[in-house]
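Lab channel / #folding
Pinned by the channel admin:
"Please post every new chain as: sequence first, then the structure tokens as a reply. Keep commentary short and put observations after the output so the thread stays searchable."

First post following the new format, from NK:
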Amino acid sequence: MTPIRIVGIAIAALVSMVLLTGCGSTPRATNLQVNMTLNEQLAQSGRVPSIEVDVIGLNQSQLETFRTVNLSEYFLSSLRRDTNKQTFYFASGNTEPKTLARTDGVWKEWIDDQSAMYLAVLADIPGVTQDLPGEADPRRLILPLDRSRWSGKRVDIRVDGSGLTLLTPPKPAAD
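Reply from TO:
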């Protein structure tokens, strides 16, 4: 083999390694099955307040807005009205689990059209008006959609009378 050919093969191998390494480290969003259940005690109490839960795909530029929005104001605002969201309802007589399927068309809109990398889950729960920033507000969850953060393809969330509980947390972010 000639020295020029050896150098060419070495350069090709180096370029391939760089390209393959770059592909593996780029975050890629995944669609998840989102399952929401009402707290069993609350569901069986017969006195379920009217609870609305919005699920929203967010891109990086939307993240801070939804992380900091005052939730009591959000549920009455044009921001909510103008947001591409899926809304689920719980009430007396409507306590069965709710699911946003992985195959729902909204995932294509969020991930392909909006470049969503996060999922916001916001709940309007009567009587809960703490309006705390970020996830300190128990009515707000912000989840990563990066496929490397999830072991499976589903997220389970419990809706309580005081907030949301994430039952299937994501894996820690890689450094």
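NK: The chain has six helices and eight strands.
TO: also worth noting, The chain has one domain: 29-166.
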